[in-house]
Description:
There is one protein chain. By secondary structure, the protein is α/β, with parallel strands linked by helices. It has helices at 13-22, 43-53, 67-72, 74-95, 126-139, 164-173, 191-203, 220-231, 261-265, 273-289; strands at residues 5-8, 27-28, 36-37, 57-60, 98-104, 145-149, 178-181, 185-186, 208-211, 218-219, 238-241. The protein has a five-stranded parallel beta sheet, sandwiched between helices. It starts with a strand and ends in a 5-residue tail after the last helix. Residues 290-294 have low confidence and may be disordered. NADP nicotinamide-adenine-dinucleotide phosphate is lined by residues 9, 11-15, 28-30, 38-41, 61-63, 65, 80, 102, 104, 131, 149-152.
Amino acid sequence: xxxxxxxxxxxxxxxxxxxxxxxxxxxxxxxxxxxxxxxxxxxxxxxxxxxxxxxxxxxxxxxxxxxxxxxxxxxxxxxxxxxxxxxxxxxxxxxxxxxxxxxxxxxxxxxxxxxxxxxxxxxxxxxxxxxxxxxxxxxxxxxxxxxxxxxxxxxxxxxxxxxxxxxxxxxxxxxxxxxxxxxxxxxxxxxxxxxxxxxxxxxxxxxxxxxxxxxxxxxxxxxxxxxxxxxxxxxxxxxxxxxxxxxxxxxxxxxxxxxxxxxxxxxxxxxxxxxxxxxxxxxxxxxxxxxxxx
Length: 294
Ligand SMILES: NC(=O)c1ccc[n+]([C@@H]2O[C@H](COP(=O)([O-])OP(=O)(O)OC[C@H]3O[C@@H](n4cnc5c(N)ncnc54)[C@H](OP(=O)(O)O)[C@@H]3O)[C@@H](O)[C@H]2O)c1
């Protein structure tokens, strides 16, 4: 274990990858599974955990990432995506650690795509608005680092909700049809790339906003086809859906793909989506052969 890093929300999908990479402590809401209990919406909780551990870097992965739930429960979204960041920011001003805030491509309206860090934001849903408010809170802290990611994928590591990658594999294995949206575009973050990027950006002393996604802009439909082609499963089972036909509560940005030119200039490396998918498939095959399942 290193004393340098602490991952708040380390028990979540993104957080687990970072706890694993940095071999550092992480928090969740219950204190189960080797994590430290911390309710980030309670200022005293945040202060006592950080005061005890005194990390140099605090990566905040706490958040409500379910976009439709955020639309239905705006107060919960504001608590996790904004108030929690304000609490961490206020402790950072006293204890002088570097705050790394994980944010999202959904701060953009999606009208143009290939957004740079200098482009104007304009969220179209509650999730994006509350995450943008979280960015504003983090940016009040000297030298804070705000990293925008998108539709992350990687190893499950005990995740409760199934990620899209695993859903596609599981449905195709059962010869089921996968309907995937073809008119919404993102640059998905491969989680090992995020871990490597944070390591590099933190140790180079970078601050401000960075996009850490991918060089491959794709729709869900294209991603599902890539998974099918790479795994040798039946590509014909992937069919096109449109955003207009989805029963979503929240609006989605049409093209929230992000430019990674700035992070590339700091030496951050990106795995081509084809290679990332192939690696994850080989990993899940090894796990299946070992009887532990995907
Ligand atoms: N997933 C995406 O598609 C996506 C896309 C772009 C950006 N992001 C951002 O990435 C970050 C992590 O997302 P994720 O997908 O890893 O979410 P996740 O799997 O839902 O994990 C969220 C983590 O926050 C913890 N948490 C929840 N309520 C808390 C509270 N009141 N106090 C302290 N911790 C609390 C959870 O603890 P428990 O484990 O106890 O529930 C969990 O460890 C979020 O900021 C999200 O906005 C995610």
